[in-house]
Inverse folding.
């Protein structure tokens, strides 16, 4: 799936009309998800993404080194949502959940099934349920 199709899926899921807003929102959710995953898992996801989507997922060398050094950040679903809500300047938890589900759904369409299952194994139960339901 090309980047424009990925953004189109998010636009459709979220009911947005502005592709730039969908791209920014996707970047926020993807960045937060990366913080929750091991660097190895993040690199496997990046390898499975189409070339056009890699820039949305990839991080700089400093961020990768920090991730290797500190490991994945442990967060509950509430903490995960708080981080997204603050970064995206969303007004409500419902908007945050809706955004997260839409981006998760679009990302899962990009990944082989086993890769999606690997992501789920790294998430706490409440986030895993959200990932699986998306």
């Amino acid at each position: 799936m090309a980047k424009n199709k990925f953004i189109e899926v998010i636009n459709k899921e979220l009911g947005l009309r502005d592709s730039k807003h969908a791209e920014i929102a996707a970047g926020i959710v993807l960045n937060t998800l990366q913080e929750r995953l091991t660097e190895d898992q993040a690199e496997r996801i990046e390898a499975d993404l189409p070339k056009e989507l890699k820039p949305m997922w990839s991080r700089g060398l400093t961020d990768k080194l920090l991730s290797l050094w500190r490991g994945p950040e442990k967060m509950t679903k509430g903490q995960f949502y708080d981080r997204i809500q603050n970064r995206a300047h969303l007004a409500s938890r419902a908007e945050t959940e809706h955004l997260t589900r839409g981006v998760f759904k679009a990302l899962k369409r990009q990944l082989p099934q086993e890769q999606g299952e690997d992501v789920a194994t790294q998430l706490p139960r409440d986030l895993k349920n959200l990932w699986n339901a998306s």
About this structure: The longest helix spans residues 19-36. The mean pLDDT is 86.
